[in-house]
Each structure stands twice: as structure tokens, then as C-alpha cells.
Amino acid sequence: MKIAVILRQVPDVVEELVISEGGRSLAEDEVMHITNEGDEHALEEALILKARHAARVTAVAVGGDEARDSLATATAKGVDEAELVPVPPEHRGDNVRLASVLGPLLKPAGYDLILTGVWAADQLDAGLAGLLAMHLSAPYVGGVVSVSLNPDRTRGTVHKEFSGGRLGVMEISLPAVLGIQSAEQPPRYVPVSRVVQAKRALQVRERAEAAQVVEGIRPAKLVKPTSGAKAEMLPGDAKGVAEQIVRILRERGMA
Amino acid sequence: MIPREVVVVAEHLGGEVTDTTLEMLACAHDLARSVGWRVTCLILTDNPKPFQSLPLNADKVLVVKDAGLGTPNPAAYARVLPHVLKDLSPRLVILGNTSLGIDLAGPLSFTLGAPVVSGCVGVRAEGDRVIVTSRLCGGKLQAQIEPGDGLTIVLLMPGTGHRELGMRDEVPPFEIRSSPAPLESLPVRFLELVEPKMEDLDVRKIPVLVAAGRGIQSKDNLGDLEALAKELGGAVCATRPVVDQGWLPRSRQVGRSGMTVKPRLYLALGVSGAPEHTEGMKGSDLIIAVNRDPEAPIFDIAHYGATVDLLELVPILTEKLREAKGGA
Lengths: 255, 328
Ligand SMILES: Cc1cc2nc3c(=O)[nH]c(=O)nc-3n(C[C@H](O)[C@H](O)[C@H](O)COP(=O)(O)OP(=O)(O)OC[C@H]3O[C@@H](n4cnc5c(N)ncnc54)[C@H](O)[C@@H]3O)c2cc1C
Known about the structure:
The structure holds 2 protein chains of 2 kinds. Chain A is an alpha/beta fold. Chain A is built from 6 helices and 12 strands.
């Protein structure tokens, strides 16, 4: 049983996002990168499956040098192999391109399952998992919150999230690509000391981008959204704010 | 010249079209009217009957009927849609930025060689150009995209557009076709749809909600939020990351894949305001948001906001409310 999990580097949206001068992308030197949240869940699900089925898990990181940290963490958590596909920042949100790069790299390795986050923070297009499935001619389900494999491992049963908390129970034949929404348990924590240790011993197989890449859409313009209705901001420190909230609620008969 | 088409791929459950479908129709109608295009509402189902006399706001309703289309199985949709869309050759296809739409996007983009624009919050046409506005980075950025002259597929964010305009006064022409592709032996089988379990309270019925976002930082801080909620006569609900951490049961999640709530008060604490969350709470009567980041998108929909540290605020606020009650 071989599982690959794709770990993308995306902008940390909790930080301030600065738009570059051209207005079409983020100012790269201002961006803090983190591993895409959905991919962190995909990694957790892969490790859960590894424990259940003695699978071999390969983490395939996409990004720049900071992706090596993501691979060190994944290794400390228990993946067996680490690969890095360097992709320049301006192309990382282009999933059409990523799928055309990753497809030919992943196909010959014969993975039974390829897991990745169903969504990426910087995504503007169809999403990586579904596109990758097409490149690999493999079946695909996204929005997955749990995976169990049949004893013969030719099929799996997944739970797919629908709106309103509903779950679709679906059976998929392997090999397959799954877009993970969230893992069955919260992504595990590893102490920093173990990550540092893993980083020292880390063996990364660097993969070159395929010669032929297909490009997808790019924004004509990037802006900070402005909505007409902005909140009325309550000034002051915590005490002052608390007093104002009490007053607002009092006026409405709620306090 | 034959007018160009906009195709809306309907989503439905138990014989009823979803709110997102009505929003997609409203959006398609707006755009089509501005440039003289036509709107086709495409419904894939095993049973066309419930849709037959629906006054959907479209120039035509086209139903593809097959026993294999009784469930929202993206694999079945992905097999049927390329054939139908090639036949209709629309300029624009609108899908929901939903569980189904997200799964269809990749396969359709690849098979039809068409770009997909996700997170769409607005789409308009100028002449033959389609211009799409999208949200990304948790709602902190907005992109304008001009995808080119061929077929374009957009995933419309739920909550975009006026769903009342998804219906009109008359029933549009209705056509039923059989599936252009066999749907047996799909590599993905839809076994069943399971309704959510109500493990504890039903947040949809609670008049005051204190929402815990990732900004609460640890499970240990939930106690303070519970105390505040109790003081307000309400309960604690949460964003997805808080539920994914296992700090609260899934039934407390508000947003696209959780509950839609409309309480009298929604106190959002450490919630960034990602569209997937706000979708489920923006109809609340009064929204007060506390977030250290002045750029957090939650302030675009909140009535009142503050940028103080929530961990500092919560105990003080609880105390002040207690005092206010005592003094009343
Ligand atoms: C298909 C799909 C479905 C989804 N469904 C849902 C859903 O149903 N519900 C949902 O909620 N999300 C959903 N999401 C996830 C959504 O996109 C966001 O990731 C999520 O809502 C973010 O949660 P958050 O605001 O708690 O966390 P974050 O975005 O991490 O925000 C935390 C905020 O807390 C602030 N903060 C930190 N510390 C403090 C402090 N001490 N005091 C004050 N403020 C502080 C930060 O400034 C930040 O803005 C879905 C995503 C996808 C792709």
C-alpha cells in the first residue's frame, strides 16, 4: 500500500497580505508561508491509514525552500519518504499548472492513494485534487472527512461532507485521489525537538518540474475587498470595550 | 446571431432545488439580461416530476433523467455534463462553490479544456467578455479575472445574489432528455446520505451565540466563553478549526458545512470571517466581532467590532454583564 500526500506552501492569511506593485500578485518578500491547512489534514489522514494498513507514505512538498521545513515536520510525524518539487512563488496558486507538473511525477510511482487538501487558501481555480485525478485517470472524491479501506485494498469507503452537516457515504475504487476536508482526528502535534532532529537527518529527493507545463488562469487585478457596510469600531481597551458592549446590549434589552 | 447561453447546473435535495441554485439563477439572470444571453437551468435527476412546474428564473429548464442520478454523486454528474455542455456550447457555466461543485470543477475543466474560476462573488459580461470577481485567502483578498473567449466555468459562492430572483411568475419551457452516457459501473458509488446527528443542543434554536474562533487558542479558554454565554442566556458555537481540533462537537459548527444560524446576537470571538463561516451567520440580527486584526474580513459584516485581545475581554465582559444584571 503506497500513499502520497501533497503539501503545498501557501500564504498565511492571518498575517497582513501586501499586494505587489503590479497589482496582480502578493508582494513575495512580505508573505509568510505555511503548509496549506487542508494538506495538514491530508497528512494526518495518511498517517492514520499508515497505522491501520502498514502503508508507506511519501510526502511531496510543493514550494520553495520553506517547504523543507514542512517535510521535516512530516518526517517527524512519521512519513517514510520526502520529496520536494520546487515551484516558483508566482506559480504556486495555479493548480492547472501544478497538476500538469505533479501528474507525470506521481504516475510512475504507482500510488494506491494520493491525498491532498480539497482546498488551498490561495486558490482561484478548479483545485488541485480533481485536476490531478484527471491527469492520472484515477477516480476522485473531494470534501472527504474519513477514509476506510476494504481488506483487499482495492476499494475504500469515504465520508464526503455536504452542506448542513450531511455526510455522503461513498465507495471508491483504488488507485484514487482524495481531496481531504479534515482528517478523522486533529493533525498530530510533534515537539519542536523532534522536528529539529528530523531536519538534521532529512533526506529530500528533489524532483525537477516536467518539461511541459500547462498554465491556468491568473488574476488581472488583486485588491483588498471593501464592503459598503463596515462595522462601527468600539475604541478603547478591553474594559472600555466591555462597557460599550454592555451598553449596546442593554439598549436592545439583552443585558 | 444566436444568443449565447449561460448554463446553471442545479443542485437539489429531496426534490427541492437548493438556495444556492436560486442564487445561481439570479446571478445568471442578471448577467444574461445585461447582454441579451439566454439562461438554461440544467437539472440532473432520476425523477423530473418535482421540478416540472417550478417557476425557475430561466429561459429553459433541461432535465437529464437517469436512475444513476438519484444522488448527488459527482462522478455521475462528471460523466453526464461534458456531453450535455458540448451540445449546448454555452459561454458560461455556473456551478455552486459547494461540495458538489468543487468536485466537478477539476474533471470539467480538464475534459472541456475550460478554465474554472472558484470563489466567485460576482460575474458580469461586457460585450463578449466575461469578468469574474473572486474571493481568496480566507476572504482577505479579491481578484478580478478575465478568463478569455472560450467556455468559462465559475463556482459561485453560496450567499451571492438574491435568491428571491431565482424564481419568477411563469414556468419556463421544460425538456427531459435521457442520459447521454451510461452510469452503471462508475468508479465512485454513492451509498447513502446521512443526516447530521444532534449530539447536544441545536445551535439554530439558540437566541444568543458566542462564537469561538481559532483565536481562542486553546481548549482551556472555552470555559470562559461558556461562562459568558451563560451570562447572556445563550450557548457557544464555533468555526471549523475549533471543531476540527475536537474542542467542540461537530453540531456546534456554524458555516457552509455546519449550521446556518440567525440569532438575536452573534458574538464572534477570534473569528476571521472567512466566507465559508460567514455564510452560516451573516443573517444574525446583531453581530459583534472581536478580533485583534483590524483587517479581518469579519468586520465587513459585523455591526460592531473591536480589536482588543479576546482573552482579556471575555472575563471582564462577563463580570460587567453580571454587574449590569445585579444593578438592574
Ligand atoms: C469547503 C469548505 C467548507 C468549510 N466550511 C466551514 C464551516 O462550515 N464553518 C467554518 O467556520 N469554516 C469552514 N471552512 C473553513 C474556513 O474557510 C476558515 O478556514 C475558517 O472559518 C476559519 O476559522 P477561524 O476564523 O476560527 O480561524 P482563522 O481564520 O485562523 O482566524 C482566527 C482569527 O483570530 C484572531 N485572533 C487570534 N488571537 C486573538 C486574540 N487573542 N484576540 C482576538 N482575536 C484573535 C486572528 O486575528 C484571526 O483573524 C470551510 C472551508 C472549506 C474549504
